Structures are given as C-alpha cells and as structure tokens.
Amino acid sequence: MRIGLYPGTFDPITLGHVDIIQRAMALVDRLVIGVAINRDKGPLFDLDQRVAMVRAECDQITARTGGEIVVHPFENLLIDCARDVGAQVIVRGLRAVADFEYEFQMVGMNRALDASIETVFMMADARRQAIASKLVKEIARLGGDVSKFVTPPVAEALVSRYR
C-alpha cells in the first residue's frame, strides 16, 4: 500500500490545501493529513478545532472521490511522523520560489535523517497560488470576505473567531 503524508498546521485549511489533498489522492492509496501542533506558530485555532476542520473537509473529498484519508495530529519531527504512519512519501505544496527554497532545505535534512522516505512537490493550482493561511486570517481579522479562499464552514469559523 502506498501511503503519503501531507503535513501542515492547517490554521485554517484553505482551498489551496484542499486542492493539494485532492490531487495527492491520485498518487497514493492512503493519504495521511498530518496536522502539526507547532506551538511556536501560535495558531489561531487550537489543535482539536484544526483537526475537526481538516476532517470535515477530507470527509467531503472522500465522499466525492473515494479513497482513504486519515487525519493525524503530530508534534514530533516530520520524518518521525512519516515513519509512525508508514508513509513512503511526503507531499508538499509549492506556491512560489520562496516556498521552494525553504522546502529544499527541509528535504535535505529529512533525507539525511531517513533517505528511504521521498518528498514529492506539487505546484499549487494557478487559481490558488496566492492563498496562504496567514493572509486568509488577516483578511478575516480585518472584516474582509474570505469566501474565495476557504470553504463556507471554514469561513464561518473564521468570522466567529474574530467576532
């Protein structure tokens, strides 16, 4: 069984994330969405809220397309999380050159820790390249419309959070 791991903080999950999840499903038999705890980032939503949002979006995807998606919170090293879930591949989404520079370093470190786990980069869909969770939160905080960047339930969660 081919198992892929798509890690992130998903604070919140955006349409860009959903795009990568849907496309990554074609590459693996099981896709594990690793929701990083990452206390250093100071997330807007707590872990349980982020996991619930990711799970709800993934349930929608599997209802439409089939396949298997598992949502897995983690706080350890990414490579250890990949081992924990049996992933042979880590899936990463890229929006721009700046993303690649950071990801290139991460791949080098991960390969040094475990060369048996590959990393696959997926370019963001052109319509989704500008979407970043940080910017979505900023728009929501300032009262802007985030409906072009997240699904309706996530938009409602953002509005409620900043109310």
TrEMBL record:
Swiss-Prot/TrEMBL site (Transition state stabilizer) positions: 17
Cofactor requirement: Mg(2+)
Domain Cytidyltransferase-like per the UniProt entry, residue ranges: 5-138
Residue sites binding substrate per the record: 9, 41, 78, 92
SUPFAM superfamilies, sorted: Nucleotidylyl transferase
Domain of life: Bacteria
Record's subcellular location: Cytoplasm
Enzyme class: transferase
Record pathway: Cofactor biosynthesis; coenzyme A biosynthesis; CoA from (R)-pantothenate: step 4/5
One Gene Ontology MF term: pantetheine-phosphate adenylyltransferase activity
Keywords assigned: ATP-binding, Coenzyme A biosynthesis, Cytoplasm, Magnesium, Nucleotide-binding, Nucleotidyltransferase, Transferase
Oligomer status and interactors: Homohexamer.
Name of the protein in question: Phosphopantetheine adenylyltransferase
Gene: coaD
